[in-house]
Design a protein that fits this description.
It is built from 24 helices and 22 strands. The mean pLDDT is 91. The structure holds 2-(butylsulfanyl)adenosine.
């Protein structure tokens, strides 16, 4: 029987959605890629010819709609909590015992699921249609990322359930898609993502859903809020699956904690055969009544716990050891490895921390070693396998000279690190400047590793003080530096002159003084000069500033070279003292702002917080109560509406001028 175009379209939509489900959710492909592509093409062609029959849940609709200006904030009616972790069988037994104590029951059964290593989201449906998707945010309010989520192939836009329902799950990126994405980014010279989780989070933050669609994100649903239906979590999952949600097939109903432990152990090695990363298992009390009785703490439910796998250790060969020189001159040995796959990504370098660690491990060049990687942390060498030595392994030499500038190295008292003492050492110079411009420091956008290297090599920078004396004429001469990039960079540099005091302290790059210590110093002192004058006793009397930090601060400010650089900053107009905004912070009180388009110097959140901090108000829509519209590039419809209402439209620069004027009044 020949089908009408309408019938064939309906059939194809069903088939392709089913094949997607089998491939991505069940991990069980049932047709070849070639056959899949043929069907997809046929559907595309039919939809083009008969657009009137296009279905809202067609897989061809997952290409992403119009770009957004910003994400709206949405409140979670039920907070999105986090989960306690366990790391051993004993801790799982303790978890079980505690539950039994708390609710006074003898037997508790559990559901054990995979702990997907991605980004938690909440999805809302009504009349069987997906209409809202929100990130976890701070647990109480998140971003409305509905349009981005719509692009996820395995996220059903329609379900077989008409009542309003909220479900939660994890968005993730498969390992193969992650490798592919990073390869493309490498070719384009873009920053690489550290792992699939970061890539997922980064993708969901994109404002252009079309770009999100290209990332091929996936989702599993693990929680659903249903009023009076199922009595157990297991039934909830079955129900969610039946009405069309992607629920992972890898889950188990366990009668007791012994079965839970067995199932967790089973996945210890099996997890590497999955096409995506998991970072553990999740154990949930099965009975919903019991869950309710147990309740939650402010941070996490008492009825669930995560079981984290120990970090995966993989063996490989140390091909060489190189020495890197850091910002403060520390020499760090790094092992160059035969590339291996560790916890889902290819590893070809691992830190050896310091030369004492090399001694402790007994590692030689040519050795077979175990490496491990946990989370974001740089992979490290954890153990040598001396049994498989061939005899041609080479000892690692402890350098006596800095590999970059040739200075004789020094070893600090009470410290294991070997350092290059030359603060003019190019390695240190570059690293210091990179640190100075970095996010938590002066936050100079565009001044990353690549340009710092070029500027230093071209003798435009010899310390971070020079940043404020860079000239348009010098920069524009450089290869691959266009007018726009130069202007943007100079603007970012200018803007950094008023960075908060704590960030400036951190930017100086004083050894042992991280951002936290910098904040403490910024609370204690009102200016750089005051810190400079402070005695060792005064410094070490500050809570959380230990003697090593105090000594390091003194050392920093007694170094002539450092003082010269600080003078350069001062002369350039870099703010060297604590904000005085406190007293006159309400300078924008009574004013309402609307923002449209993309700003150069602030993200949406940054400008909103800034205006709020100064006592002003920011609203999403233009009305007659709006005082100013701050207009960036590619403004939206708010601009026209503002014009129609006769509201003052100002640029970002005009806004900054306004703030400056009011501040100096
Ligand atoms: S249930 C908080 N089930 O883990 C209790 N969470 O560490 C409800 N996660 O934010 C969460 N896989 O993003 C649950 N099968 C799973 C999960 C899972 C991953 C994530 C989730 C949550 C985080 C808590």
């Amino acid at each position: 029987m020949i089908k009408t175009p309408k019938e064939r379209i309906e059939e194809l939509v069903k088939l392709i959605n089913y094949y997607n489900y089998m491939y991505y959710v069940e991990n069980n492909p049932v047709i070849s890629d070639y056959e899949y592509d043929q069907l997809y093409k046929e559907l595309l062609e039919l939809e083009e010819k008969f657009p009137q029959y296009k279905l809202p849940d067609s897989p061809t609709q997952k290409v992403g709609g119009k770009p957004l200006e910003e994400f709206k904030t949405v409140e979670h009616k039920i907070p999105m909590l986090s989960m306690d972790n366990t790391y051993s069988d004993e801790e799982l037994i303790e978890f079980d015992a505690k539950i039994k104590r708390m609710v006074d029951v003898r037997d508790v059964d559990y559901v054990v699921e995979l702990k997907y290593d991605g980004v938690a989201v909440s999805l809302h449906y009504k009349n069987g249609e997906f209409f809202l998707g929100v990130t976890r945010g701070d647990g109480f309010r998140g971003d409305d990322i509905t349009e981005n989520l719509r692009t996820i192939k395995t996220l059903p836009l329609k379900i077989k359930y008409k009542e309003p329902i909220e479900v939660r799950g994890e968005v993730y990126m498969r390992k193969d898609d992650f490798e592919k994405l990073n390869k493309e980014r490498k070719e384009k010279g873009e920053v690489l993502f550290a792992n699939p989780r970061n890539a997922t989070a980064g993708s969901l933050k994109l404002l252009d859903p079309k770009l999100v669609a290209q990332r091929n994100l996936q989702i599993f649903i693990y929680q659903g809020f249903l009023n009076n239906g199922p009595k157990t979590h297991w039934e909830v999952l079955e129900f969610l699956k039946n009405i069309g949600f992607p629920v992972s097939p890898y889950r188990k109903h366990c009668k007791n904690i012994k079965e839970v432990i067995e199932y967790c152990n089973e996945w210890q090695d099996k997890r590497f055969s999955l096409p995506y990363n998991i970072d553990g298992m999740v154990i949930k009390v099965n009975s919903l009544d019991l869950q309710k009785n147990l309740g939650t703490t402010t941070k996490s439910p008492r009825w669930a716990v995560a079981y984290k796998f120990p970090a995966e250790q993989v063996s490989t060969i140390v091909k060489d050891v190189i020495v890197q020189v850091g910002r403060t001159g520390t020499l760090t040995p790094v092992a160059i490895l035969e590339p291996v796959l560790v916890s889902g990504t290819t590893v070809s370098r691992a830190t050896l921390h310091n030369f004492d660690e090399i001694k402790r491990l007994g590692v030689k060049i040519g050795d077979r070693v175990f490496v491990e990687k946990s989370g974001e942390i740089i992979p490290k060498v954890v153990k040598v396998i001396p049994e498989v030595r061939k005899g041609n392994e080479k000892d690692i030499q402890i350098p006596t000279e800095c590999p970059v500038c040739g200075s004789k190295v020094v070893k600090d008292r009470e410290e294991v690190a070997i350092r290059c003492p030359n603060i003019r050492c190019p390695a240190q110079v570059k690293e210091r400047i990179i640190h100075f411009a970095s996010r938590d420091a002066m936050d100079i956008e565009g001044l990353g590793e690549k340009w710092v290297n070029i500027f230093v090599d071209n003798k435009l920078l010899s310390d971070y003080g020079d940043i404020y004396y860079l000239k348009y004429e010098d920069l524009i001469k450089l290869e691959r530096m266009g007018d726009k990039s130069v202007r943007n960079l100079l603007e970012a540099i200018e803007k950094s002159k008023t960075r908060p005091f704590a960030n400036l302290i951190y930017a100086l790059g004083i050894r042992h003084i991280g951002i936290h210590a910098s904040e403490i110093l910024a609370d204690e002192f009102t200016s750089i000069d005051e810190i400079k004058k402070a005695s060792l006793e005064k410094l070490s009397s500050i809570p959380e500033i230990g003697p090593i930090m105090a000594e390091s601060i003194k050392d920093f400010f007694s170094n002539e070279e450092n003082l010269k650089v600080i003078e350069k900053l001062r002369k350039a107009g870099v703010k060297m003292e604590r904000e005085k905004i406190e007293e006159k912070k309400e300078i924008l009180a009574g004013l309402t702002f609307v923002i449209t388009g993309t700003l150069k110097n602030y993200s949406r959140n940054e400008i909103q917080n800034y205006i709020k901090k100064l006592g002003g108000k920011v609203t999403n829509s233009v009305s007659k109560n709006t005082d100013y519209i701050i207009c960036g590039s590619e403004p939206g419809s708010k601009l026209e509406k503002g014009r129609a209402l006769g509201i003052k439209i100002i640029s970002e620069e005009e806004f900054e001028k306004l703030v400056k004027e009011r501040m100096s009044e």
